[in-house]
Design goal:
single chain, alpha/beta, Rossmann fold, 17% strand, globular
């Protein structure tokens, strides 16, 4: 049975990706930051529905000690989906250093920490690393400077790491999502949502199930498809 690790899996994109992998028979290791009860309930649902093994870990994915403990207690992964992420909306001059470090830690440093532990377990076996990024990492977003910087860093991190790991048959790609209908975007007013939809050629937000299907397609493409930052944004 293949094994996948999905970070930030208690809701939204992470939960949808986890279910798509479970449907394909993957054993799962799922993480979250603070929604431990919710994640455990979700894991039980997946085990009952798909007959898979599913373990949960609750902690700060940007903390080295948590990531080290996580990987000491799991089987070697075939797939790592770095999905955990947070946003911060506001003027850069009003942002504190702690807020900046928090966004960079969760969105970018976490990928370093998880990959550093997962890669030795993948060597000689192959595997797939998928980093969930954002279109703002390519073009930048006003009022979301830290988020944009973290995702821009994740994009170049992906390209560089892919070059290191291609000789080992480990693919590394990023999925640069546009606006996805998740709880992270729940702060948007109806007017804000409509304005965004008007800018998107597809005329709507993406669903989490569509993002999950894109993740599966990247895995299925095989190791020759690597080092790509794949836009998934409705044409915006």
């Amino acid at each position: 049975m293949k094994h996948a690790v999905v970070t930030g899996a208690s809701r939204g994109i992470g939960a949808a990706v986890a279910e798509s992998l479970a449907e394909r028979g993957y054993a799962l290791t799922l993480t979250c930051h603070s929604q431990g009860t919710r994640l455990e309930r979700f894991a039980e649902e997946l085990k009952e529905k798909y007959g898979i093994k599913c373990d949960c870990f609750c902690g700060d994915i940007s903390e080295e000690s948590f990531v080290d403990r996580l990987f000491k207690n799991i089987d070697p992964p075939d797939v790592l989906v770095n999905n955990a992420g947070i946003s911060h909306v506001g003027l850069i001059q009003d942002m504190t250093l702690d807020q900046w470090n928090r966004v960079i830690g969760v969105n970018l440093t976490s990928a370093f920490l998880t990959c550093r532990r997962a890669i030795p377990m993948m060597l000689g076996r192959g595997g797939s690393i998928i980093n969930i990024s954002s279109m703002w990492g390519t073009v930048g977003a006003s009022m979301e400077v830290a988020y944009s910087a973290s995702k821009g860093g994740l994009n170049t991190y992906t390209k560089a790491l892919a070059k290191e790991l291609a000789p080992s048959g480990i693919q590394v790609n990023a999925l640069a999502c546009g606006v996805v209908d998740t709880e992270m975007n729940s702060f948007l007013t109806d007017e804000d949502r409509q304005a965004l939809c008007d800018e998107i050629p597809a005329g709507r937000f993406a669903t989490v199930s569509e993002v999950a299907a894109a993740v599966i397609s990247i895995i299925d493409a095989g190791p020759y498809m690597t080092g790509q930052v794949i836009g998934f944004d409705g044409g915006i």
